[in-house]
Amino acid sequence: MSRDLLKKYIEKRDFGITGESKGKVGKRAKTNLRFVIQLHEATRIHYDFRLEWHGVMKSWAVTKGPSYDPADKRLAVRTEDHPMDYNDFEGVIPDKQYGAGPVMIWDKGTWMPEDDPDKMEREGRITFTIEGSRMKGQWHLIRMRTPDKRENWLLIKSKDDFALNKTKNADFLKRENTSIVTGRTMDEIRKAGLGKTTKLTKAPN
Predict the structure, then answer these.
(1) In the chain, what are the domain boundaries?
(2) Can you give the residue ranges of the DNA ligase D 3'-phosphoesterase domain (predicted)?
């Protein structure tokens, strides 16, 4: 039954064409949980924010990207669960495929939930701490009460030592615009073509 977690993911893709992972539910860990953020130039540019839980990556599309300013409430639209090895996907999803366009691994690391994630998800407020290269400190995902067919959440930074004011946060995403794994720009990823889920060369120091 655990494979049902990836049912929507599998139904949306033709794995004879795309280089994305075919999908496999991993072990259910409760410590050293992984997270990844992938910058994705599909129909609209967005940041795919993913948290490991129940052997898959729970996913949200953050339309304007994360903000270190606690005053910003960034829309995060819930999307289908992804397989954990999708964390290593960087490249181009082919034309006429779901999500066609280049994908960059923008950040990755570990996350720690403040409470039981299932309980927090039911209550509509997931509070967690992230340890990545670009994302750090405490964050919140808060579910919105709207009649929209989509499951809309808000990604909000906590007021902690990592928070920035509006002025200091303004150029954050413009400045951090290369792959955390390969060091490539989005244009370089696009020119390289078809992506595959594989072990990638680390970015130069």
Answers:
(1) 2-192
(2) 38-143
